[in-house]
Amino acid sequence: MKGIILAGGTGSRLHPITLAVSKQLLPVGDKPMIYYPLSVLMLADIQDILVISTPHDLPQFRRLLGDGSDLGLRISYAEQPKPNGIAEAFVIGADHIGDDSVALVLGDNIFHGHSFSDLLRKERENVDGCLLFGYAVHDPERYGVGETDGNGRLVSIEEKPVRPRSNRAITGLYFYAADVVGMAAGLRPSARGELEITDLNRAYMESGRARLVEFGRGFAWLDTGTPESLLQAAQYVRTLEERQGVRIACVEEVALRMGFIGPEECHRLGARLGNSEYGRYVMAIAEEFAAASG
């Protein structure tokens, strides 16, 4: 399975903060926002990842992430000059996807929960069409909402419905079979000229090939698209990290625990971060891992 992070757009809801810097490079806690979706793909055991962003912002992502080899990854980059819809990511990333299935995660979404990696690795083996991830919310009228039958098959998808048929919001994480490239290319642009992800998902649903997996209680899904939600996400992350003594979306630790790199490589990555609390944490994790490995 290949991975795509869509980190484009103008971040207009965060203006003036995002007039000079990409939204996905803003800090959430002590790390850039893009670390969170990147860690999601890594937890799904995906190592070949395409980052899509604007021509203006791509050099900054390259500077931050490089080619991914330090983390045992292969990271490449592609431009989306204008925000022409989420589904355009599959047209832009056609060569990257090739004949593989693909996971798309939005660059401003944060996911956190127990056994998340186990769930992702299990579901990536069962992609026959479109697999969406749902999250129960108290205000479904603000989201795209999915309704399923008793077997988890999608039977309806509505975008910001006045009278929602369920309370399961569709999150910014999507798994697709390899035919998504052709499906996306065949979409009719919306009135705004965009290739809408809801239209793509509905096409899979109408062919009986769309499922919805619901994140259960105790799981967190955060969208960081507004100043308020950005602050709430930072507070959530900081509270958990301080109480549990672990770091959420520490990509160096994820790479180590997934077996992408070894403890020596992980320790070097921490040392490169200088005298920062984050760097010291990475080095400590590497030392603990090496000691436990004997």
Automatic annotation (TrEMBL):
Protein name: Glucose-1-phosphate thymidylyltransferase
Superkingdom assignment: Bacteria
Record domain Nucleotidyl transferase: where: 2-237
Family named by the database record: Belongs to the glucose-1-phosphate thymidylyltransferase family.
Record GO terms (molecular function): glucose-1-phosphate thymidylyltransferase activity; metal ion binding
Keyword annotations of the record: Magnesium, Metal-binding, Nucleotidyltransferase, Transferase
InterPro entries: G1P_thy_trans_s, NTP_transferase_dom, Nucleotide-diphossugar_trans
GO biological process, one term: polysaccharide biosynthetic process
Keyword presence, Metal-binding: yes
PANTHER family to which the protein is assigned, alphabetical: GLUCOSE-1-PHOSPHATE THYMIDYLYLTRANSFERASE (PTHR43532), GLUCOSE-1-PHOSPHATE THYMIDYLYLTRANSFERASE 1 (PTHR43532:SF1)
Entry's EC annotation: 2.7.7.24
UniProt cross-references to Pfam families, sorted A to Z: NTP_transferase
Organism field: Streptomyces showdoensis
Catalytic activity: dTTP + alpha-D-glucose 1-phosphate + H(+) = dTDP-alpha-D-glucose + diphosphate
